[in-house]
Every structure is written in C-alpha cells, then in structure tokens.
Amino acid sequence: MDLRARKRIAVIGGARAEKKHLKRAADVGRLIAERGAILVCGGLGGVMEAACRGAREAGGLTIGIIPGDDPGEANPYVDIAIATGLGFTRNSLVALNADAVIAVDGEYGTLSEIAYTIVYGKKVIGLDTWDIKGVHAAQSAEEAVSLALED
Amino acid sequence: MDLRARKRIAVIGGARAEKKHLKRAADVGRLIAERGAILVCGGLGGVMEAACRGAREAGGLTIGIIPGDDPGEANPYVDIAIATGLGFTRNSLVALNADAVIAVDGEYGTLSEIAYTIVYGKKVIGLDTWDIKGVHAAQSAEEAVSLALED
Amino acid sequence: MDLRARKRIAVIGGARAEKKHLKRAADVGRLIAERGAILVCGGLGGVMEAACRGAREAGGLTIGIIPGDDPGEANPYVDIAIATGLGFTRNSLVALNADAVIAVDGEYGTLSEIAYTIVYGKKVIGLDTWDIKGVHAAQSAEEAVSLALED
Amino acid sequence: MDLRARKRIAVIGGARAEKKHLKRAADVGRLIAERGAILVCGGLGGVMEAACRGAREAGGLTIGIIPGDDPGEANPYVDIAIATGLGFTRNSLVALNADAVIAVDGEYGTLSEIAYTIVYGKKVIGLDTWDIKGVHAAQSAEEAVSLALED
C-alpha cells in the first residue's frame, strides 16, 4: 500500500448537522474509500465523524487534523489523528493537506476552509453548502466524489 | 495614551485592488484613526496598505500581522509589525485581534478572514465585498466605521 | 515617534518566578525603555509582566504575544496585546518579533524560545537562565541590555 | 490494524547529520517499527529521513509533519505527510503528536522540540544530543526505544 501515491480528499462541514447531511457525509466518505483515496478532515464530530465512519466502513484510511492538543480528542473513526493546538486556525491545514475538498452543509468554519482551499488553488465541491463563486455544486455524493477525483 | 482601552478595527481586503477600492480603504483607515481606534490589518499591500496610510495620515496607530518571518516585510505605514511565519494561516490572527472587521473588496483570502471573524463572534461590515449572510453591507466609509464602532 | 525604526528586544522567562528574578526582569524592562527600544514578550505573568511593568514605568512601549484567543488576557502592562490562539506554539512568534532576546530565569518554555531565537539567527543574552552553548551570559541587567542592543 | 491503539514515538534531529548519527536514527526507526509503534518526525531529511527509512524497511508506518505547504516535500519514506505551512513553528506539533520523543544528535531546532516535549509533559530520550536536565540519556538505539515505550 503506497500511501503517498493515493489522492487525499478532505470532507468539511459542521461539528453538528442534521441527519440528512450526516447521511450524505457518510456516503461521501464511503465513496472516497471505495475509490482508493484517503479521507482528510478536521477530526471532530458531525459531518467530519460521519465521513470518517463511512470511509472506515469501506476499509478506507482517515486523517483528522484537530484543533486541540491531544490526538485522543479525534472522533473514533479517525485513523491518524494530528493534534495542532491551533484552535480554528487549523482550518488552513485541512485545506493544505487535501488534493480537493468536498463541503457538506456547514457554517462559517466550513466557509473559512472553502476559502483556504481556493486560496491554495485546489478544487472545492459543494453539497448543500455555501453557494458562492468557486464552489462546484454537486447533486449527489457520487457526483461530488467523481468531481473531486477528476484531474 | 492608554492603548489597551482603545478599540481595534481590522480592515481586510486584497493585496491588489482597483483605485476606487484603495481610496475607500484609505478613507476607512483615516476615519478609524479620527475616531480614536487602532487599525489592525494583514500588513501587506493593496487595501491593507491604503488603510494604514489613511490611518497614519490622520495620526492613528496601525498594527500589521504579516504572513512572513520578517517584520520588515510589512508595508511602510504599519507602526507595529507582527511577523507570524504562518503564511495565509495568519488570517485567523487578524480576526482574533480586532473588535470588529471592515472588508473592502477582496477575494478568497478576505473571505477566510470574514469567516473567521464570524466564527469568533465579531461583527463584519462590508464595502463592495462578499455579499453573504453575516456581512453587514455599508454604503460608505463613514457608515462602515460607525457600524464597526457601535457596541 | 517612528516605531518601525526602534529596536525590539524580547524578554523571556517563566510565568512564575522568584522575587529576585522578577526584580531583574523589571530592571531589564526599564533599561530597554530608557534605551529607546520596544519590549516584546509572551504577554503573561511572572517575568513577562515584571519586564513590561519596568518598561512602562520608564515610559516605554510593550508588545505581548499571547497564547490565547483574547487580547484581554495579556498582563496589564502590555500596550499592544497580540492574541494568537496558538498555545505554547506562539513561542516561535516571540522570537520572530525581536531583534535580540534576553532570558531571565525560566524553564522549558523559555528554553524553546531560546532555541527558536538561535534558529532565527538572533542573539540570546542570559541572566540566571539555561547555561547552554549559544547563550551569552550577562552578569547584570545593564550588561544584558547593552549586549542586546549592540550590533 | 488499529492505528489509534498504537503508540507514537517521534524521532527528532537535524536535517543534516554525520553518518554515525544517521545509522543510529535508522536503527531507532527500525526498532520503533518492530515494536509496533508509529514513527512521527518532522518529515525532512537527515535524521528524520534515516529514521523513516529504518521504520519503513521494518514494515512500520511513518508520519512526517513538515514545515512547508506541500505534502510532497516530505522525504520519500514518510507514509503520511502533513503539511503545516508553519515553518519552524511546526516543531511544537511534532511534540504534540508523540507519546515520547527520541532525540538523535541535533542542534537548535532539535532543542526547541526537546523543550516542547517536556512542556507537554512527555518523556525525551537522548542519543548523543543536548545534555540538559530532563533528557534521559540512552547508550544505544535499543535502550532508547525501550525507554520511549515504557509507561
């Protein structure tokens, strides 16, 4: 397993979310894993946890870049927890560590990550999230993951 | 001069901008100074530099929180240059160090700062910038600075 | 007052310290101010606060780069409080924002700042602090500040 | 493979080092992997690369937390490259992400990591490195890894 050769897709969204968004995030996570990519996220609950759970159930690998000092704070579906101690300032690092980003729902933390992703010249795909210039809206988890993995 | 008692208003916007936006930013900077507040910014060129210049011409104090390692990289109208070495990740620190934020024009770096400001529970006033929920649109520099200094 | 032309000297040391070290730190702060330099520190208590108090009593300007999110957490003798939200990771920023550093007493946080200062190619002067290669030991506050302000 | 249950040991040291130190670092990396732990490092060359190479040759997993913006800058023996964009400020994150740290040789960057490790309440084992209070000197790679993995 050559981990460095695998694409890394970040899934971003709120630490709290409605069931329908959590379901979407889990589907996205599962598809990322099935397509052989590594899932990156902010490592906490809500959309992040649902995406990790989906990826893990499909045998994928998950990385969580968390705001706190203790890797143990990551959600239980994170395989590689990276503690930053940076608080919300770590949002920039989520974007740095992805080849493309899929946003599911989300509020202003998610918006900061969308913005950073575009600053860093990478693609953002949106599912029921901020409708702003630069976000490629997708209609389904399948479409989102396909767009994220396109070159 | 009790600096700690003075409000701090951040002016955010692109490192490159059209003349009309630079003029606006300079007006905003001047008014911040005239109203006794400290101007905070990202310390580089464009809107940041214009705002600092406006504040300095009105006798104000300016703080620039820059991405690089060397305080000397700040624009010449910054009084207190804070080097972070964090790159764009420093955008979060601009928001942390303001009581309110005025966005003038700007692209995705500005958007990340708008998002952080709202994450941190502070007010964002916009002048020809991102038209998104949570940004209070102002029609003039005067209105923007008044809104920023309201409690 | 051209703030950018003034040298910036950081004083580093523990958030708790014995009286004799606090006295030393206050003397160092006072001398930095009397010699026209700006005092930079980590913005908290102990040696940092004593140094700021000394500088302020001599009419100097003080900058505190703090670990937390709220500039209000800086000690009361800090004029310009910069919130980083970075926790101890902010120690690197203290070193980045000084032309030279004076360490007074201190434990491992201080040691990290000494190390960063040398990594960044700047001079460290020590007063009863870590006795390691690269730290110029001084015998008095006067000597420390003179060494720090030498070219 | 439950990655979260595995201990994480950081190996720190210079990006350039003499052959004997590189050999030591490779031995340390190999033993970390053989003992079932994950190797964490700063992701660049020298001691970091040698340790990763040793771990990889023994079938271990390696994490590199790098100063730059691009995960691709990590040395080729890093499995999980985490880009921080923080420059040397990332040294704190290396310490946050280890249960214990082994220092091999090294200069001031290494010293900052030793200091952070102790600030964060974790054990530092030294092999031909800084001889300061708080560093447990080991005589061999075997002893170092055993000390690091003790409770």
Descriptive account of the structure:
Four copies of one chain form a homotetramer. By secondary structure, chain A is of the alpha/beta class. Chain A is 36% helix and 21% strand. Chain A is built from five helices and seven strands. Chain A has helices spanning 19-34, 47-57, 91-96, 108-119, 141-149; strands at residues 8-12, 38-41, 62-66, 80-83, 100-104, 123-127, 135-137. A seven-stranded parallel β-sheet of chain A has the order 4-3-2-1-5-6-7, sandwiched between helices. In chain A, helix 1 links the parallel strand 1 (8-12) and strand 2 (38-41). The radius of gyration of chain A is 13 Å and the shape is globular. In chain A, 68% of the residues are buried. The interface between A and D is medium-sized, with 23 and 22 residues.
Largest sheet of chain A: 7 strands, parallel
Q: Give the proportion of residues in helices of chain A.
A: 25-40%
Largest interface: pair, residues per side = A-D, 23 and 22 residues
How much strand content do the residues of chain A show? 15-25%
Q: Please tell me what the overall shape of chain A is.
A: globular
Strand segment tally of chain A: 7
> How much is the average pLDDT of chain A?
98
Q: Termini of chain A, distance in Å?
A: 22 Å
Outline the low-pLDDT stretches of chain A. Answer: none
Structural class of chain A: alpha/beta
With strands numbered from the N-terminus, the spatial order across the biggest sheet of chain A is 4-3-2-1-5-6-7
* DSSP summary: helix tally of chain A: 5
Q: Oligomeric form of this entry? A: homotetramer
SSE pattern of chain A: EHEHEEHEHEEH
Estimated radius of gyration of chain A? 13 Å
